[in-house]
Specification:
Elements (H helix, E strand, L loop, with lengths): L1 E4 L4 E5 L4 E2 L3 H5 L4 H9 L15 H7 L52 H25 L1
Antiparallel strand pairs: 1-2, 2-3
This protein binds zinc ion.
Length: about 140
């Protein structure tokens, strides 16, 4: 048993049962960060021992040991005989303004560069403020 604590939380790691009170280890079968912190602190403890057997090479080989037949062309598929055609559902307009920009990929830079027009607006705002101050000073003198 190991107690992992942070500023406002505390998790209990049990190596024998392969559980953690954050429940990520039980759900995924892979030790959570709390368990990894404890396991790596142990002397000469193999981390692979605590990963579920589901992720083993033997299980992978067992899953793909049978032959997976190649798929034929769509025109060669057997026709259905149940007498009706299943149409796709009709799409309804969703609430809110439609999204214009596409979702960025995980490898793309998410930070948006400031456009030249935005920079121009900022520059004009600064110049405008300065010019306004200069004008006010000259009028006061
Ligand atoms: Zn945990």
């Amino acid at each position: 048993m190991f107690l992992f604590w942070g500023t406002d939380f505390r998790f209990v790691v049990n190596l024998q049962d392969k559980t953690c009170s954050c429940r990520q280890w039980q759900v995924s079968g892979i030790p959570c960060k709390h368990a990894v912190a404890f396991i790596t602190s142990l002397h000469n403890a193999p981390l692979e021992k605590y990963v579920d057997m589901y992720y083993s090479i033997d299980k992978f080989r067992a899953a793909y040991q049978h032959l997976i037949p190649a798929m034929t062309d769509k025109r060669q598929w057997p026709k259905s005989t149940h007498g009706f055609f299943m149409h796709p559902p009709l799409l309804k307009a969703t609430a809110g303004r439609p999204k214009i920009e596409r979702y960025k990929g995980c490898s793309e830079n998410k930070r948006k560069k400031a456009s030249t027009s935005a920079l121009f607006v900022q520059a004009m705002a600064i110049i405008g403020t300065t010019a306004r101050k200069v004008i006010q000073r000259t009028l006061l003198l």
